[in-house]
Amino acid sequence: MVYHRDFNAEHADHQALRPLIIADGLRCMVAGGPWHGEAEQTNLILASRDMIALDAAGVGLLKHFGRWDEVTNISVWEQRQIKRAVELGLGAKGPEELELIARSLLGRDEEFSKLTEAIEAHLK
Q1: Which residue from 51, 70, 109, 112 puts its CA 20 to 30 A from 9's CA?
Q2: Is residue 47 one of the residues assigned to a domain?
Q3: Taking every pair of C-alpha atoms in the chain, what is the biggest distance, in angstroms?
């Protein structure tokens, strides 16, 4: 291991950059996964500058389908990965810090609206 006196300072610089995180949810594993399980066509693309917010929305999506007991039976904010990320200060600490903005590229889309409303309900 090589010592670099500015190592920690460089890491702080990386934290100042808040990249846009994009998750392709057009087709989503809703049970099992990531390589085997049940998939659904959701036609969603999730994007956020907050990794916890994005992960929480993804968990809300999985909870909507209700096919994965490990996810369905635990609230979004009690999921292990979400709790740990909150402990580490990586983003939103709870639903009060989130705003779900949903837009369908198809215009008025009832299925899209139902899905995004369900995700939002699971985030609370």
Answers
A1: 51
A2: yes
A3: 57
Q: For residue 80, what are the domain limits?
A: 20-123
Domain count, the chain: 1
Tokens of 98: 């989130």
User: What is the pLDDT, as a whole number, of residue 2?
Assistant: 45
What residue ranges in the chain does DSSP mark as E strands?
A: 21-32, 37-48
User: How do residues 98-107 score in pLDDT, each as one tens digit?
Assistant: 999 998 888 8
Whole-angstrom CA distances from 52 to 24, 75, 104, 118 are 16, 14, 23, 18
**pTM, entire model:** 0.80
With respect to residue 2, please indicate whether it lies within any of the assigned structural domains.
Answer: no
Question: How far are the Cα atoms of 47, 54, 73, 85, 119 from residue 99, in angstroms, in the given order?
Answer: 12, 11, 24, 18, 12
Amino acid at 96: E
Asked, for residue 83, whether it belongs to a domain, the answer is yes
pLDDT digits (tens, 9 = 90+) for 56-97: 999 999 999 999 888 899 999 999 999 999 999 999 999 999
| CA gap 101, 112 in Å, rounded | 12
**Coil vs helix vs strand at 105:** coil
